[in-house]
Amino acid sequence: MNAVFPGSFDPITSGHMDVLTRASRIFDHVTLTVMHNARKTGRHLFTLEERVAVLQEATAHFSNVSVDSFGGLLVDYMRQQQKGIIIRGLRAVSDYEYELQIAHLNRQIGEVETVFIMAATRWSFVSSTMVKEIASYGGDVSEMVPRASASALRRKFAEVYAEREVEQGR
Asked: Which of 18, 53, 102, 151 has the most CB atoms within 10 Å of its CB?
C-alpha cells in the first residue's frame, strides 16, 4: 500500500523525519509531497524548489520514499496519483483537533483515509516555525532538523551565523 505525507516542510524537521521513518516501515511507498499554496506565496522561508531539493537530500537514504510537489487540493493530488492514504504527524492534542477536521473533510470530498502517526516525545516541541526562529538568530538547530535542513538554514542565515561565530571568537 502506498501513502502520501503532505506538508509545507519549510524546513523538514527531525519530527517530520521520525514520522516519515516510521511510515516508511508501514507502507510500501511513501511520497513526501510539498504542498504549494498560492495564497501563501512569500510566507515561506524557502522556495518550493529549495524545499524539494532539501527533502530529496534528507530522504536519499530511503529506498521507498520519493519527493513531489503539488499546488491545489490534496484530494485532487491523491486522485491523480491514485493513492488513498494520507499520513499526518501529530505532536500534541492541539495538532489532533485541527488534523481531525481536515481528515474528515478529505474523506468527505475525496474518499481518502488519514493515518495519524505520533511524533516521538523528544520531537513534540519542535516545529518548523520555531526552528526558523532559532536559526534566524544564529542558534544551533542541528539536533532539531536533518543535516540537509541545517545546511540550508545556515546558507539562508549565513550573515547571522557568521556574526555569531565572530562574537563567540571562532
From this structure: 18
The more confidently predicted of residues 118 and 40 is 118
Residue 66 is among the residues annotated as catalytic for this protein: no
Would you say 99 is a known binding-site residue?
Answer: yes
Model's pTM, two decimal places?
0.92
- What is the total residue count of the chain? 170
C-alpha cell at position 22: 516510521
Evaluate whether residue 148 is within a structural domain.
no
Q: Which of 44, 51, 83, 91 is catalytic?
A: 91
Q: Is the pLDDT of residue 40 over 70?
A: no
Q: Is 113 annotated as a binding residue?
A: no
User: Looking at the domain assignment, is residue 62 inside a domain?
Assistant: yes
142 is catalytic: no
Q: Which residue of the set 16, 51, 83, 132 is catalytic?
A: 16
Confidence of residue 142 (pLDDT cuts 50, 70, 90): very high
Nearest 10 degrees: Cα torsion 106, 113, 79, 28: 150
Number of domain units in the chain? 1
Domain CATH code at residue 35: 3.40.50.620
